[in-house]
């Protein structure tokens, strides 16, 4: 099971790849929409990528609450299997 | 009627991803055909095509030049090629800094024959393997044909007509013709017009292979596969890429001191009303399309110096087109050069007409007509016609005719002249 630090690194790399942003911008407090230029469909795609990468299931109502990088890291670390 | 001129060019082709590189290679007689690299096509009908080359190739394409990383991930390659070619054309025309008033009167007509076939294929496999929740949320708008026009309008703020032609292999020519009419009819002052295609994927090769349309007999040397008018031709070689021109109302272009490449003076369209894939046995649709374009241009047949033929290298199509040209031009054939640049870049399907229109414009600019490669043994019907075999020919080109014919029996012809 991945620790918080490892999860953060992998989340960052997915965000950089999907949103085409600089890694330096992907800080824990960064909002996907307000700071990283995502639209609602980009977030759907990101959430799918998190699910694939970490083997977690993120239902729609939970996905709506994931608005920042830290939200994603927290949700994944709390719901990882194993 | 308002006059329409060409003031910008953009190309992404298998022999170069900018206008000058592609043209240099076309004139030099270089071929873009190779064994397919994108997937293993060994067990397919054919294993060669004219792919757009990777960025590290001497005439490769770097998508990151003009297309954001995020958009590259979301859309099919035909849209990436289209955005890049449109960007080249806008830059070439010196129109990067249009004010809002100008942009209200600037539009897009960039189409495609098939659209996002690779993405439709790959996402269908995701659906089958992993279910609907794994299909990309960008699936639909990353594959739609009008999304080149959509993306380009957003990127450059173009608020005029937003249009996309879908007429198979006539798309590029129809796009330019229709857009020219929009300017002539005062719907816009500037139009980005052209076509793009990228269907070199397993389902694309299998589909055209099953339709018995592809060249299959040149696995040992793919550069010999596209051989329009040659006795040994056995089908077309699939190409990919994009061509986009900036069309502009003549006075508008003159007023801002734009470089003017050519004037679009004739546009002809017709339907074969005969068969979905086979051309009319007497080339009747092709004949009427060319006849209309020449009539509208006001030129005499003798004034046309060069024809860029549809000439796909299929056994039936090439000779029927040649027959229709002979019937129309009669005695005026003697002074004419006619070649097929598909011999070098393959068949770009929805992109073909626009890419070839640009080659015609460059032929006028540089007074040189590009060659028909691999024309080792011309068909018997070719006697007495200058098909520019193997090597480019220097000659004055003041007016051109460009033909495109597509599945469904759809025909388009353009006549342009130098100014």
In a few lines, what is going on in this structure?
In chain A, about 60% of the residues lie in helices and about 0% in strands.
Per the CATH scheme, the topology name of chain A is Non-ribosomal Peptide Synthetase Peptidyl Carrier Protein, Chain A
End-to-end C-alpha gap of chain B? 17 Å
Amount of beta strand of chain B: 15-25%
What's the number of domains of chain A? 1
Strand content of chain A: under 5%
The biggest beta sheet of chain B, please?
A: 10 strands, mixed
Catalytic activity (chain B): (9Z)-hexadecenoyl-[ACP] + malonyl-[ACP] + H(+) = 3-oxo-(11Z)-octadecenoyl-[ACP] + holo-[ACP] + CO2; a fatty acyl-[ACP] + malonyl-[ACP] + H(+) = a 3-oxoacyl-[ACP] + holo-[ACP] + CO2
Keywords (chain B): Acyltransferase, Fatty acid biosynthesis, Fatty acid metabolism, Lipid biosynthesis, Lipid metabolism, Transferase
EC number (chain B): 2.3.1.179
GO biological process, one term (chain B): fatty acid biosynthetic process
